[in-house]
Amino acid sequence: MASSDQTDGAPGSPGRLDPATFSRVLLKLSGEALMGDQGYGIDPDRISGVAREVRDVHDRGIEVAIVVGAGNIFRGVMGAASGMDRATADYMGMIATMLNALAIQDALEKLDLTTRIQSAIAMQEVAEPYIRRRAIRHLEKKRVVIFAAGTGNPFFTTDTTAALRALEISAACILMGKNNVEGVMSADPREDPSATLIPSITHMEAIERGLKVMDTTALTLCMDNDLPLLVFNMQEEGNLARILSGEHVGTVVSSPVTAGGKA
Predict the structure, then answer these.
(1) Can you tell me the distance from the alpha carbon of 104 to that of 111, in angstroms, rounded to the nearest whole number?
(2) Cβ neighbour number for residue 222 with a 10 Å cutoff
(3) 4-18, 151-165, 199-213: the lowest-pLDDT one
(4) Which residues pair with 7 in a beta bridge?
(5) CA 247 from centre of chain
(6) Would 65 be classed as within a structural domain?
(7) What is the DSSP letter of 59?
(8) Quick one: how far is CA 102 from the chain centroid?
(9) Which residues form the domain of 35?
(10) Is residue 126 classed as helix, strand or coil in its secondary structure?
(11) Chain segment 122-169, per-residue pLDDT in tens
(12) Most-buried pick from 38, 130, 179, 220 (CB within 10 A)?
């Protein structure tokens, strides 16, 4: 599998990636990216748009795995904040990801892509159990693999699932598709209208600055294993293909370049 290509830069600066060299990627979709302009649930047009993007990437010969959140249906943290037991709320959120996974699978198969859903919680009527070697074999056979039900454990987010699964399947990068967010911003644009897009940043800088890239557990896991992220707006159709053509879209989050020029 081809790895990411990081070119020389100033010591301590993020490495530069060449996504055109990637042969296997993991796409992390927020649940909100599936609801379009709706305030809740699944927008069929948005799901179809996501499926077309994945097909375009798949047609380039790139192996694609997907981890999907469930913020468009149920978010465990919010359930816990309203008084629900946190573990119970998280299990509800994990089950909600299966609804999104099935919708994505249906949209992909309508485009003649072969898919498999693997669930971290046993749901044998609709999904395979998560088995790392089987997932890798599906990818090698050019099937799109959708990982559902998070890690199968409460207190972990689907961001952590994305980091964990990407490392397990040796993906070159995590592509984080956001809902109407261009990438990593210098501040929350809803609170600070002057917030600007950060083109590239290191994992550690993102953690130290408290930027909302992904949760800290997931970001630390990526940092410890030199796993780069590309954060971009999934709502703008064509962005995924542009990224994997080598265009700079959104924000690159990667390991720093050392004095020797290597990350």
Answers:
(1) 11
(2) 27
(3) 4-18
(4) 16
(5) 18
(6) yes
(7) H
(8) 17
(9) 19-254
(10) coil
(11) 999 999 999 999 999 999 999 999 999 999 999 999 999 999 999 999
(12) 130
Q: Tell how far CA 224 is from the center of its chain.
A: 18
CATH number at residue 186: 3.40.1160.10
Q: Which residue has the higher pLDDT, 57 or 212?
A: 57
Does 10 reside within a domain?
no
Residue 175, class by beta-carbon neighbours within 10 Å (0-12 exposed, 13-18 middle, 19+ buried)?
Answer: buried
Structure tokens at 155: 């207190």
Rounded distance between C-alpha atoms, residue 263 and residue 261, angstroms: 7
What percent of the chain has a predicted confidence (pLDDT) above 90?
A: 67
- Give the chain's domain count: 1
Q: Is the pTM of this model over 0.85?
A: yes
Question: Dihedral of CA 168/229/117/58: which sign?
Answer: negative
Residue 55 burial (CB count, 10 A) = 19
13 is a domain residue: no
Radius of gyration of the chain (CA): 17
pLDDT in tens, 47-67: 999 999 999 999 999 999 999
